[in-house]
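[job 4417] fold queue: 2 targets
>>> target A
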Amino acid sequence: MQYQHADPSSRRNEVWSLVVYISGACRGNGTSESRASYGVYFGPGSPHNASGLLPSTVEQSRARGVIEALATALSSIRAIQQNDSQVVYIKVATDSSYLVGVMTWAIEDWIKDNGIGSNGQAVAHYNELKTLHGLLDGMEHDINQLMYIQFWHVDRCMNGDANALANAALDAAPVGPD
């Protein structure tokens, strides 16, 4: 199942829709001192807004941070829909063209090729992305709850609240190894 890549310029408030903004952040990217985080923003004061640092045992990069943000958002979406089954249209907005491209175009080919990309190399974060794809597929095909999921690639300025949450997690992080 490939998930639709929505055009953010076509946004409109739909009955039964939910928009969640997600972001990853990384400081010192590409160095041994790098530290990454994620931010998930549902709206002002939402109890589902979340942020945190990536465990030190995983790659510390912005791409890995946005993957963690998606995993966190999907967990909250499942909880929201269990309490409000009228939420049908889910929009996942992010400024990560990487994540939108992976989840809307590349992942199914990668799964067919057992995690090998078109360049013949192993795909970074393949296991996490494959797991998220399976979760999304299960959410859309749950016979008990109707759900349609779209990914929106938005400008960074439209994703400020999720970015702020991700950066706040980094600001609050203790200095040095955890």
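>>> target B
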Amino acid sequence: MRRREFITLLGGAAAAWPLAARAQQRERVRRIGVLMNLAADDPEIPNRLAPLLQGLQEAGWTVGRNVRIDYCWGAGDPERIRKCAADLVALSPDLILAIGGTTVGPLQQVSRTVPIVFVNVTDPVGSGFVASLARPGGNATGFMIFEYSISGKWLELLKQVAPRMTRVVVLRDAGLTSGGGQLGVLQGAARSVGVELTPVGVRSAGEIERGIAAFVRDANGGMVVTSSSFATFHRDLIIALAARHRLPTIYSGRFFVGAGGLLSYGADPYDQYRAAAGYIDRILKGEKPADLPVQQSTKYELLINLKTAKSLGVEVPPTLIAAADEVIE
């Protein structure tokens, strides 16, 4: 959905509010908090929130009539995320939507009673957010972005595009507990693919630049950017560095390829927002997060940016192009 259409959707809901208020003055207005680890002006936000708002409308929840949504933006800053978590809980919401693994922990540190629905989380059990996928058991449930096994596929795809690649830097969020699981799968796949891994944990833009610069001192390299809100927030920098150093790189989400990245393989991140609207609806109507199983993505998509491939001097095999879900010329 384009930004203009997204703004129209919000504006239409706001414009309808006075009429709806007179018609349904006694209808209770429920309050939803949204915590996202992006900046408020990130162009990716409309793509994520539009399916959420549409899903809520289809379930009977209209912003300005019977639901209010309070947003807080973490902007890639752990301290800011913690403050957002405290501020949203202080509003006494009926529920909070937590986007990304870096937002759930801070929310649970503030409250173990406010219901939480999360999306785009890699390992909710290993991170301690839920007791199990089938029976979360606490105040949180939601949607996993992918299983760890998908990490091995990243190396296989990257090797097809860069067959002379013998070294791979794995760029990962050092503060994300699920990063260890992804790295373990990558290390196992590296042996079968025939590459040597160099894990680089980063916590800032400066560490991203230094880590990549140190790696590219030797030839025949490639890069895997593991799934994290941190990588999403810094995607422009990462993509620019990959281009500058002519480093074939694979990412976990389609929005990296749309911004100029070479390859991505992962679940469609936007489907989870519509699904989250269904869980939000059920919780607002009385069900408990503890009883709603965590759901996993079952469909994955491959995106290829041929323009970026040309600029990097790599040739994408025709068989891989034919297998892609989307190709950017």
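[job 4417] complete. Note on B: The CA atoms of residues 177 and 256 lie 22 Å apart.
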